[in-house]
Design goal:
The structure is a homodimer of 471-residue chains.
Chain A: H1 8-15, E1 23-25, E2 44-46, H2 51-64, E3 68-71, E4 90-93, E5 100-104, E6 109-113, H3 118-127, E7 130-131, H4 144-149, H5 157-160, E8 167-173, E9 179-182, H6 195-199, E10 208-215, E11 217-218, E12 222-230, H7 233-247, E13 251-258, H8 259-268, E14 282-290, H9 296-309, E15 315-318, H10 322-333, H11 335-342, E16 349-351, H12 357-369, E17 374-381, E18 386-393, H13 406-419, H14 435-441, H15 444-457
Parallel strand pairs in A: 2-4, 3-4
Antiparallel strand pairs in A: 1-2, 5-6, 6-10, 7-11, 8-9, 8-10, 12-14, 12-15, 13-14, 13-17, 16-18, 17-18
Helix pairs in contact in A: 8-11, 12-13
Pfam family, one (chains A, B): FAD_binding_4
Protein name (chains A, B): FAD linked oxidase-like protein
Family (chains A, B): Belongs to the FAD-binding oxidoreductase/transferase type 4 family.
Chain lengths: 471, 471
């Protein structure tokens, strides 16, 4: 049965059940996404103040067959936060439910509402000398509900895991409007199926997360940064294994960068000072965080000596101050902006098994060369096998010149990733952008199970219709 | 519709589809569980050699409506590994599928079949200087499939997480016989619902795990152990927070022990040398594992000095050798045996939020005293909020004298755990022992979602019928 629109009659019916000013006409910012690919058909947004109000909204939508688009910070990159076609859905934003409910330093835990902004959760943890390790470029606007709905990744995944690994418990409104009160702060709880992990990463298609119990981590007493020149991606991976042998879990970031990234920085952001005249073909930026009494710079220099001896690094800089560390990270953090200024023909958020990174890199370039001439910027969270593999036009041409090759490039990259046992969406999710990819590359038994679960829990298909699974 | 029995006709039909000697009469060891509470009604066991054979078995059971009991090492403590009533099910053991398929030291990963024994996986990791951190008393016989099916816990959870946290990917046969090929070795993969976490911990009620990609960890270069006397459980938790501040994630075990445990050791295992004449009321046994160049004994002595200064510890021993460390752990490891020899009236595998441990301990004793006179041995993985809270008769009486009080004791303990936001099954799962508890204490919306998922994926209810959810 097709969904019903969130029209005037529906809005009147729902408004009668909610406090004044809960429903409003949607603004432009609620109907867009960062890449400007799509605009939402939604006309109304609900801004509930409590879990009970979310429950009322979902129950009414279930009764009337109106679709719901759960909206967090709206920073997603795959169109999961809007519906560009079909009957107008109701947007449900949790921006009014943004409280940090409680912080438990002795337990290393915090309980927050799903509308809380990531940076605010980070600050609340820092206030009690703890770390909430989830960290990514959009942390100033991304909200916890969206971050968990999409199982966000980011910089610190190597040490602390993905968003799902930060969660002790959830509260959520299920597609029939019932409320699952699962906000326990337990490290061990084997009482039945793990709904928490089932909901996380389903992009709002099985319910709306309204609150979360989160793990906090101890704050490393001292951190250190090194920028190391490596002879090859394979050497980078062997360096990582060596570093983990020496430093255990204390490595919080291990970013592989190709020369192209630095060339783009020089071209588009020439004011950023680079630590070399000619960037090396491959380099690694790594961060470590150690306990009290340890000296990160010394540990990194010990690592450098061993790695140099083993021909795994040829040159390098160990930051001797926080300012120097920040200067090195500034380069990495501006790479996305430089990329945007150059203008990619096609960008790929992919992962492969760590051991397959060298083969992926050595095969992807020649495969793409058969489709044309490109500049390739390959960089990313190599410690997680997660590369941002972005394809750019050669100087003198623009991405507009290659619009008709975009699909062929994407398929070329994704086919190779799939062949190597990788993922065509490492961090960003499926949303609406990658529904076709999921159908092409997904395991058939898994897809069938997903559809069965979706139909059983959301028989009318009201929750984020068309995201992840075709509506 | 009731299930059909795995009778002679069924066995003939299934045998015709499988190699000789795949089906056999079940032996006594396949039909028992460690606590001797139940005996299985099963008469036949299938011993497949491949995932395809598992698929054939499950598909045939789905067609005929015959129940399946997936069997790992058979070490579970809640009766999930047998069906004591109703039509005879077919036992499916993966003991012939026990290969370590591949080990990837550079990636810190390994791929194993589900029948692999935990100790063999630990050895395969150690052979390449890596650690597979899952560790528990039954590791010499527990198999990976059962450990993941039950989301096993154990000693190292504080540092490395539960069984589910060790898994990168799974291969599994779903209740219709289809095979999910999900053995990816990826750290980041956001392509659809996380079937991996859905299957883990469902105790075989949604499918049979046939293989797993597992995470390995770097092996700590140097480990250290301390046995510390603490003035109270609250001091123990503040000590843990202090220790995590100083030592970060390097604390791999933090076991709280009450004097009763040492009294039982002295009574039942007098040859075990204890490090004191009179055991303290509360003590903590902690382990740390550090990177190269660090000195664990020195780090523990620094911690001891700070904790002593803050009145969090009153006395303590820092092991100065591996032998001394092992001698301390021997005490902890023999506590279960001493408990068995004394004979508990009722044992409880519970968890509460870390901050609620002191309140739980201070309220549970007086609440139980209203039911009679007891000796209580409270010990366990305090770093995870997971306590084994066991109730024993006073000297001169035996557990047989209190059989009729068992339920009242259990309810008293579980009601308090529930009130404090805890779990009545921290590590061991639901199996058949705790189906009533799940119904009593489980969140109604969660239970409804579990039943919906179970019915949708396993409409005939053939997978481990009666475990977790009432059949």
């Amino acid at each position: 049965m097709p969904l019903a629109p969130a029209d005037h009659a529906f809005v009147q019916r729902l408004s009668a059940l909610l406090p004044d000013d809960t429903l409003r006409p949607a603004e432009a910012r609620h109907r867009e996404e960062p890449r400007g690919r799509w605009t939402s058909t939604a006309e109304w947004i609900a801004l509930p103040r409590s879990t009970e109000e979310v429950s009322t909204i979902v129950r009414t939508c279930a009764e009337t067959g109106v679709g719901i688009i759960p909206l967090g910070g709206g920073t997603g990159l795959v169109g999961g936060q809007l519906k560009p076609d079909g009957p107008a859905p109701l947007i449900v934003s949790l921006e009014r439910m943004s409280a940090i409910r409680s912080v438990h330093p002795q337990e290393n835990a915090a309980v927050v509402q799903a509308g809380a902004i990531l940076a605010d959760v980070q600050s609340a943890a820092a206030d009690v000398d703890r770390l909430f390790p989830l960290s990514l470029a959009s942390e100033g606007s991304a909200r916890i509900g969206g971050l968990l709905g999409t199982n966000a990744g980011g910089i610190n995944t190597l040490r602390y895991g993905n968003a799902r690994d930060q969660v002790l418990g959830l509260e959520a409104v299920l597609p029939d409007g019932s409320v699952w009160h699962g906000l326990k702060r337990l490290r061990k709880d084997n009482t039945g199926y793990d709904l928490r992990h089932l909901l996380i990463g389903t992009e709002g298609t099985l319910g709306i997360i309204t609150a979360a119990s989160l793990k906090l981590a101890p704050r490393p007493a001292a951190t250190g940064t090194a920028l190391l020149t490596v002879p090859s991606p394979d050497a980078a991976l062997t360096l990582l294994a060596l570093a983990r042998g020496q430093l255990g879990e204390t490595i919080s970031a291990f970013e592989l960068m190709h020369r192209t990234g630095f060339d783009f920085l020089a071209e588009k952001l020439p004011d950023l000072r680079q630590p070399w005249d000619t960037p090396p073909e491959w380099s690694v930026l790594m961060d470590i965080g150690l306990g009290r009494g340890a000296d990160p710079a010394e540990a990194l220099e010990t690592l450098f000596a061993a790695a140099h001896e083993a021909d795994l690094v040829t040159d390098g800089i160990v930051a001797q101050s926080l300012a120097q560390s920040e200067a090195l990270w500034t380069l990495r953090e501006h790479m996305s902006e430089a990329n945007r200024l150059v203008g990619a023909v096609s960008s790929h958020d992919i992962s492969v098994p760590l051991g397959a990174i060298p083969e992926f890199i050595s095969r992807a370039g020649p495969a793409l060369a058969r489709l044309g001439d490109w500049r390739i910027n390959c960089f990313g969270h190599a410690g997680d096998g997660n590369l941002h593999y972005n394809v750019f036009p050669v100087p003198g041409r623009t991405k507009a010149d290659h619009v008709d090759q975009r699909d062929a490039i994407k398929t070329c990259v994704h086919d190779l990733v799939h062949e190597l046992g990788g993922s065509v969406s490492a961090e960003h999710g499926i949303g609406r952008l990658k529904v076709d990819d999921l159908e092409r590359y997904g395991d058939p038994a898994k897809l069938a199970a997903m559809r069965t679960i979706k139909s059983a829990l959301d028989p009318k298909g009201i929750m984020n219709p068309g995201a992840v699974l075709r509506g």
